[in-house]
Amino acid sequence: MLVIADNLNIRNRDYMGAIKKKDRKAIESMAKELASKGADMINVQVSIDGALDEDMLSFSVEAVQHGAAGLPLCLDSRNVKALAKAVPLCEEPPIINYLSADEEKPEELLALVRETKSNLIIRALKGTVPSTLEAKLMILEDLIEKANGADIPNERLFADPSVVHISKGQGQEHLLNAHESVIVLNEMIDPPLNTVIWLSNVTSGLPKNLKSTVAAAYLYYLAGAGLSAALVNVKDEEMQRAVYLIKAFRDDVIFSPGDLAS
């Protein structure tokens, strides 16, 4: 399973403070810590609406890339101009996070992904997050078709069925149908593609003492469905144990009880 650190986001006050101050050394230090915590990749976000991205995304990408010693990046922006500046700064093709059905001009983003040989998260989102399995799959199938039509192969796509937090309305139904989406995508799409979930969306609004347990449990649940990648808080110890055990169960690492005790 590909572990994408989601720690450098707009909710991280220290990180956003460093962004505003253009404190490169602070961002490099944060990235270095995330790499030491077991991140395979780091998600980089500098704004929620893309307003800061043209000025700050490239700055953050350079700092994170240097601090994480070349670890691959996931660029969290829908601002195509900002992405076009940031992608060449990556030492290897990044994942671009994300394309949804809400994008008015998907051709621009798809062209950038094709020309730079980047990877792309396609997200089941159209106005709101769809709650049913059928609605999630319908949106994702349309986005797969658009990506393939732009000469982006399935191997470079990461399908995100989207989740909402478990305590919101039909949250449990969303989580169940996201799980079922992963199963269907793995079984029905040929050539195969990747699947991804942003775990913090599951625990939003929960008491702090419950977040780690709920997120780790849902990751186990999705791993059993064949999930390829997850955006997670790599500094969370319970999440670290979950990731380690999943990788051990998949024979990606050699299991040692001492690794869990450390």
Record keyword descriptors for this entry.
262 residues; alpha/beta; TIM Barrel; eight-stranded parallel barrel; 11 helices; 8 strands
Helix proportion range: 40-55%
Oligomer: single chain
Read across the widest sheet, the strand sequence of neighbours is: 1-2-3-4-5-6-7-8
Supply the CATH architecture.
Alpha-Beta Barrel
CATH-assigned homologous superfamily: Dihydropteroate synthase-like
Query: What's the total helix number?
Result: 11
Provide the gyration radius in Å: 18 Å
Architecture blueprint of SSEs:
Layout: E1 2-8, H1 13-21, H2 24-36, E2 41-44, H3 53-67, E3 73-76, H4 80-86, E4 95-99, H5 106-116, E5 119-123, H6 133-149, E6 157-160, H7 171-188, E7 194-198, H8 200-203, H9 208-225, E8 229-232, H10 237-249, H11 257-261
Parallel strand pairs: 1-2, 1-8, 2-3, 3-4, 4-5, 5-6, 6-7, 7-8
Could you describe the 3D structure shown?
By secondary structure, the protein is of the alpha/beta class. The protein has a single domain, classed as Alpha-Beta Barrel (TIM Barrel), CATH 3.20.20.20. 50% of the residues lie in helices and 15% in strands. The protein has 11 helices and 8 strands. The protein has an 8-stranded parallel beta barrel with strand order 1-2-3-4-5-6-7-8, surrounded by 5 helices. The longest helix has 18 residues. The mean pLDDT is 95.
Question: TL;DR?
Answer:
The protein is an alpha/beta fold. The protein has helices at residues 13-21, 24-36, 53-67, 80-86, 106-116, 133-149, 171-188, 200-203, 208-225, 237-249, 257-261, and strands at 2-8, 41-44, 73-76, 95-99, 119-123, 157-160, 194-198, 229-232. The protein has a single domain (2-251), classed as Alpha-Beta Barrel (TIM Barrel), CATH 3.20.20.
